[in-house]
């Protein structure tokens, strides 16, 4: 609805969103006011409201960008066949891809704490995603492909804890293929770092 | 120096610190004022200053609690002998133990961003710890015990990314032995979740 509105030349909704997400990640969503954003952008608050209705709409657009990416991967994986452990690996690989491609959005998503309607809804979708992961681990365990000495719920948390921890240090470099990162994550998570 | 000072009955420096760290973790260090802390504690700001000189001193006490624990483990591991991969596993196991025992302190440490002197000094000590990890991974790789297809720097980041991600979901339960968690982390990190 607001996507086609035009404000001051130099910003469209997309470029405004990128600046807002960067600021939210630096100062926290709660700690960032529309006033702060207006100063950062060098445009008036009313110019911002040409593009988005509210700060919360910016948050919704941002976390949906992350969640839509993750659920696109999950849908594709769930529609596929093969052993659960291989689907799990595809899910991990695809999630690393989303994280790399949409790093600021995923970073913001992972810091959401649930104080507003948008945040609570994002947390609910994250829990839904976590359930998909746990179900896959449980299925893989039932197929005998996951080590039996670790609880599936703990395993899925460790697995996505590992994936999500990338936001703390990974910074995209131009020309660097992101498959190397996904390979490293899958190598460690599925086969461990010990040489055998 | 301030440890022996006594303020209003009901709080000593230790119990005040615990409340402060909980509040910092909920609202962010920057987002928490001494006024907020005073309201939360139900004592005046001047009563707080009987125990600590400043908000930054609270932060220093808190992050040192985490860092001193981690460096005690690192010192013990570095003084030990045996193959580097085994020392690395002891370092991971010990770090999970510190995280479990000192969860609010480690959580605060991992969120520190470096805006004050105390924060910059904490970040410097974190980087020193990371170097110890990377050196151990490099040594283990030279001994042929770490898979050769992943870069040691990436491996150490993944390894401690996994450990640090525990703050996002791990909540201590009374009577639960924490060795189960350290076992699960080491099982996944060193041998992978795939059954062989």
UniProtKB/TrEMBL annotation, chains A, B:
Presence of keyword Acetylation: no
Molecular functions per Gene Ontology: DNA-binding transcription factor activity; transcription cis-regulatory region binding
Keyword Transmembrane helix annotated: no
PROSITE patterns the record matches: HTH_TETR_2 (PS50977)
InterPro entries linked to this entry: Homeodomain-like_sf (IPR009057), HTH-type_TetR-like_transc_reg (IPR050109), HTH_TetR (IPR001647), KstR2_TetR_C (IPR041490), Tet_transcr_reg_TetR-rel_C_sf (IPR036271)
Keywords, comma-separated and alphabetical: DNA-binding, Transcription, Transcription regulation
Domain of life: Bacteria
Domain HTH tetR-type residues, every copy: 10-70
Pfam families: TetR_C_24, TetR_N
Location of the DNA-binding region in this protein: 33-52
Identification of the protein by name: TetR/AcrR family transcriptional regulator
Annotated source species: Amycolatopsis suaedae
């Amino acid at each position: 609805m607001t996507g086609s509105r035009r404000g001051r030349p130099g910003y469209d909704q997309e470029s405004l969103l990128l600046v807002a997400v960067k600021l939210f990640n630096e100062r926290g969503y709660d700690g960032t006011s529309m006033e702060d954003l207006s100063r950062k952008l060098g445009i008036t608050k009313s110019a911002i409201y040409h593009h988005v209705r509210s700060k919360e709409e910016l948050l919704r657009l941002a976390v949906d960008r992350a969640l839509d990416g993750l659920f696109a991967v999950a849908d594709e994986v769930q529609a596929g066949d093969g052993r659960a452990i291989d689907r799990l690996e595809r899910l991990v690989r695809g999630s690393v891809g989303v994280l790399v491609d949409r790093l600021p959005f995923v970073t913001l998503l992972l810091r959401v704490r649930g104080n507003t309607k948008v945040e609570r809804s994002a947390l609910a979708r994250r829990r839904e995603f976590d359930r998909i992961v746990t179900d896959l681990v449980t299925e893989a365990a039932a197929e005998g492909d996951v080590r039996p000495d670790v609880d599936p719920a703990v395993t899925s948390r460790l697995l996505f804890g590992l994936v999500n921890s990338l936001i703390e240090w990974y910074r995209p470099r131009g020309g660097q293929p992101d498959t190397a990162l996904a390979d490293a994550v899958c190598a460690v998570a599925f086969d461990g770092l010990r040489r055998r």
